[in-house]
Amino acid sequence: MDDSDQVYDDEMAILNNNATTTSSISINYKPHAISLFLKNNPKEWLIQEKKKNINVKYSDVWNVFGEPSKINESGVYIIIEGFASCLKCYKTYIKKKDTGTNPLRNHSCFKKYMLEKKQHEQLKNMTSQATTSLITSSSSSTCNFKFNPLSKYGLVIKSTKLTSDEKNKIKEATVQWLCQSMRPFSIVNDIGLRNVIQHTISLGAKYGNIDVNSILPGRAAVTEHSKIMTNIHRENLKSNFAELQMSKSLTIIPDLWSDKFNTSSYLGITCNTVDSDFSHSSFDLAMYKYTEIDKKAENIASAMDKALLPFDINLSNTNVMCDRGSNFVKCFKYYDPLHCYAHRLNNVIKKCFFQNQKKRTTDASASNYITPATTVAVNDILNSSNDEDSCDEADDEYVPSIKLKSKRKSNINTSRTRKTNSSMLAVDHMKLNVSELPIEAREYLIKLKEAGLNDEIKSMASVSLKQSTSVRWLSLINSLQSLHRAYKATKK
């Protein structure tokens, strides 16, 4: 039994022994225990809305908070005095007369409620006159009104049919914009673009035909306003993260990547959260230019502290997921990190095809060919934590193959090679699995690409050969699959 269950049982015993028939009770226990009762025992516990007097003005916090109550032996819910609980997440606070509702205003659910209320009022004021104009014009028109996804704030959208000439003008203007500015065609389906256009149409209905330059902000204005919105959302995230860290349901995923064109490195942090309703969300938390002198573990830790400082994130109360790069492993070794499986899968494939397995032999004569200097070099590779890249071969234990002096004669090797080549010719490569393809497949791809035969192979097999590169994940398996599919055309 963990501590939370023990607290739950102890508090239940206290409440059962002190049950009363009055309209409210006051018992000395912790707010955290009430939150557990509300979550785990909804039949006996609930949150009642604040009873309001129509002649008294109450704070907005009571739209988010209520008063916790417990059912007594008579089946009547009794309010627990001195506490206030969130109607959404059951977070409970102590309510004091000297502090009023100030502690409740710092709760994340209340901040979110106030932000949504403010946005709703702004949009409502901006579109109220446009909505009135649209409704008035509909009385003399046969067009119908309907709500679409863009009218989530109550804006009535007029559904009308444009003429073919009007539609063609819109299409021509859209194509001209996409081609001149080199924008992808999929941008026309972006909900953000359509939302902006809808707002401009609403303003046009209010003010008439106005210049677009007086509506759309410039680059500098957008940049400045983005800073304001960033600060607002960062404060909201700080309060949310504080609660998530209490239950350790916050996970961060750091990663380093390099821009070889600008010769710059960046630290990116992705965030995954699970709230009290078991709702999962994932988003990019931060992206900073990596300014440390190198990518050693201690410097990565310093960069992480700087990146997480604005969000008040403590790694001790946070889950960490990273790759198996030796620098990341050393950086987070005290936080029990989870390691990304994609890096391991990538290295498994590389080992299967292009690396020799470690030869375990008890032959004492073979060890004579391995010098002490070589042993030291191998240990340096295994134990190094100064890797410039945070993944790759450090993902798994890896011992480079060391060539031993061969005592066989060259003519024996030549005959074996000829025998192997003749046996491979008799095999139907179309029936082979990817794992059964020969190691020389990579060399074939390089030669074919240098000879310029890739286009000819694509015209014959409808599949082009893909080359494996170390900077693109899972490109090795894609390379082998392309060779497998286009084997007949390549053989010709």
From TrEMBL:
GO CC terms in record: nucleus
Domain Hermes trasposase DNA-binding per the UniProt entry, residue ranges: 163-218
InterPro entries the UniProt entry points to: Hermes_transposase_DNA-db (IPR018473), RNaseH-like_sf (IPR012337), Vacuolar_transposase_reg (IPR052717)
GO biological process terms held by the UniProt record: regulation of transcription by RNA polymerase II
Annotated protein name in UniProt: Hermes trasposase DNA-binding domain-containing protein
